[in-house]
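W.,

You were right to be curious about this one. When I first looked at the sequence I had no strong expectations either way, so I just let the prediction run and decided to look at it fresh. Below is the sequence, 834 residues in total, followed by the output.
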Amino acid sequence: MSTEKSCFHCGLPVPENIHLTIIYEQHEEPTCCAGCQAVAQGIIDAGLGNYYKNRTASSEKASLPPDEILAQLKLYDLPEVQAEFVEMLPENEKEAMLMLSGITCAACTWLIEQKLLRKAGIVKVELNYSTQRARVRWDDARVKLSEILHLVQQTGYTAAPYDAQKQEEQAQKERKKMLIRIAVAGLASMQTMMFALPTYLYQDIEAQYLMILHWSSFLMVLPAIFYSAQPFFIGAWRDFHNKRTGMDTPIALAITLTFIAGIYSLTQHSGSGLYFESIAMLVLFLLIGRFAEQSARRKAGDAAERLVKLVPAFCHKIIDLEKEISEEAAVVSLKMGDTIVVRAGEIVPVDGVVLRGDSEINEAMLTGESVPVVKHSGSHVTAGTLNVASPLIIQVEQVGNQTRLAHIVKLLDRALSQKPRLAELAEKYAAGFTSSLILMAIPTFAVWWWLADAQTALWITVALLVITCPCALSLATPAALAASTGRLASEGVLIARGHALETLAQVSDAVFDKTGTLTAGKLSVNQFVNFSGSLKDAQLIEIAQLLEQHSEHPIAKAILGLGTDLSHLSATNEAKDAPQSDFFRQPEIQIAQKINKIGQGISAQMTVQGDTQIWSIGKPDFVAEIAGMQPESMRELAQQGSVIALGNQNGFQAAFLLRDTIKADTAEMFQKLSQQNIMLHILSGDNEAAVSQLANQLNIANYCAAATPEDKLAYVQALQGQGKRVLMLGDGINDAPVLAMADVSVAVAGSADVAREGADVMLLNDDFAALPLMLAQAAKTQRIIRQNLLWATAYNLLVVPLAVLGYVTPWIAAIGMSVSSLIVVGNALRLRKM
C-alpha cells in the first residue's frame, strides 16, 4: 500500500508517475510539477529557505510562464503604458503601485519582499499585507518592470498594476461569500436548536422520536461543518502542513472533536451528549466575529482606498479654449498644459491652476476643513476636491501619480505597511499562547478522563480550546491603530510612519520652528527709519528696491512691496517736509556689479545724484563692513525685531523693521498643548530680538534664536539626553535633519519636499488645532490598546480556570470567545469618533 505524497511547495498531491524533487536541509522533498520544482529550488538557492518554516499557508500551485505571457509582460516596459501608473523619479528611478494575488499569509509578503530586494536595481519595496498592495521603486537602467513582474511570478504569485475597481470587486466578492457562510451557519443553528430544544425541555421522549430529533440535528449541522466552517479547516491545515499553530488550529480541532463525539453518541444511541447545536452555534459566532473584525479593519484602514477613489476616471477636456468647447476624455490621457472644465458638483481630477471662472472648492476630503475655499483666476486647485458653486476652467499642472493626492496615498500606504512595536509583541504573544493552549488541552483531557469519563473530558477540552482562542489578543493593537489612523486622516492629519501614534502618546516636549510654521512667513515692513541727512524716504526706498529686485526671498518681497507712501508706517527722517516729487526729477539711479552674499545681504556699485559709491542692504553687521559703526538708534531698533539695514561708504542710511504675522490659531494651540502638560520650545534661525518677541507674545519660556541646522540638531539631542520624548514641527529644507532626529516629526502644510518625505506626520492644512487633537487622539489610542490588551489578558486568565474546572460548555465557550473579539473590535472603533 503506497503512501500519498504532498508537494513540498503547494501541498497538493503528487501523482504517482511524477518524480520531481528538490533538496531542502539535506533532505529530498517531492514536488508535483516542474513549476513548483523550479520555484521551490529558486527560493532555496536564493537563501530564502526560511520561508518554508515561517509561512502560515501553502503556496498556490506554480506554473512556468509560457512565452506568450513573457511577451505580454514586456508590454509594461513601454513608456505609453507606464504613463498611466508609473511615477518618474530623478536619477532614472521609477516607482509603481502593484496589486498582488496569490498571497495567503504574512510569510508570503516576507518572501516577495526579500526576493525583490535581492534583485539588483530594485531600490525599495513597501508591501501592505492587509491591502495586498506593493509599492516598488527601481532603477530603470538596471532592471525593467517586466523583469520585476516576472520575478514575482517565478516566486509563485502574480502582480499587476494597481486597479482600485478590481480591488473593490475582489473585496465585495469575499464579503458576499462570508455573508453566505454566516447565513448557512445561522440557518443550521436555528434548525439544530429547534430539534435539540425538546430534549432540554422534556426527559420522557420516546426512543424512536428521540432518534428522529438526533438524526435531524445531525443532518442540519452538516452544511455548517462542511461549508461554513471551511475557512477554519483550511487555516488549520495550513498550520499543520507548515508545522506551526495558528488561531484557526484550536477552533478546527474543537469543531472536529465535537463532531466526532457527536457522531459516536449518535451511533451508540446515546440520549444526550450530541451537541450538534453547539457546533452550529460555535461556527456562527466565530464567523460573525471574523466578519465584524474584517469589516472593522476595512473601515479603520480604508483611508488610502477612499482617497484613491476620489479622482474620477473621466473629465471634460477643452478642445477650443476661445469657444470653451469640450469633450469627454479619460483622466489618464491628460498631460501637463491641457485645459479642462470642472462643472459645479464635479470632483477636480488634477492639480492645476484656474484660468477662468470664480467658484468655491470644498477641500474637506483632503484637509478636513469643511468651509469651502474661494477660487478665482490664478488660484491653485488640488485633485480630489469638490467644485461646489460654478464652472472653472483649469490648466493641468500635475496628473496621476504626480498629484498631491497621490503623494498622500503613498504616505498612507507606507504607514500601514509598517508594524509598530506593540503590534509585533501582541502577535508573538498570541502565537505562543496558542501553542501553550493546545499543550494544556492534553493533560486537561487526561485528568478529566481519569476523574470522570471520556465524554466529559472531551466537552471540557473542547470548551477550553474554543473559549481561550486568542483572537481578541491579536486584534487588540492593529484594530486600534488602523481606526485611529483613518480617523486622523479625515481631520487632515496624515500618519506617515507606523510608529508615530505610539510615539506621539509618549511626547513630553514639543519643539517648533518659527518662520513659516508658527508665523505666516510673509514679512512686511513695520517701521522705516531714515538716517541720511541728504536723501529722502522715497530715494532710499527706491535704492533698496533696486538692490532687492529679481529676488524671491521673503525679505526682498517685503521691501519690494513697500510704496513711497509711508503714512501707514512709523517713519523717521530728516527731510520729511520736502516734496517727494523732487526726487523723480533727478537723473536715473544707475546700478552695476551686484553681489549677493547668501544669508547676509546684497552689495552693488550705484550712482545716485552723480555720486558713485558701494551700497549694501542686509543684516546690520554685513552693512557695517562698508558703512562703518552702527548708529545707536539702530541697536535700539534691533531689540524690537528683525532689522534690515541700508548703507553706503558714507555710513548707515536707513533701516527697515520687519515683522512676521503669527498664525491665527497659534496662541490657542499652545494653550491647549500646555494643558496637556507638553513643554513648549521655539527653535529658529531668526535673530534674538524677533524670536524673543514671539516667545514673549506666546508666553513661551524656552527658545533658541539664530540657530543653524547644526544648532537645532544639538538642541533636540540635548533634550533627548535628558530622557525627553521630543516632537519637532518644521517646514523648511534646513529643518530636515532635526525632523529626522526627533522622536516624532511633524511637517506643516506647504513644507519643502525633503521635510515632508522625512516627517512621521503631515498636517494637510494650516489649522494648528489639529496638533493638540492629534496628541489627544494618540493618547486615546494608547488607552484603547491598553484596555484591549488588559481585557484580552483578563479574559483568558478568568476563563482558562473555569474551562479547565468544567464550568464552561462548548456552546457558552463559542459565545464567550466571539463576544470577547467583538468587544475588542467595538472598543477600537470608538477611535473613529472624536
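Here's what jumped out at me. The radius of gyration is 35 Å. And, maybe more interesting for your project: The chain has 30 helices and 30 strands.

Coffee later to discuss?

I.
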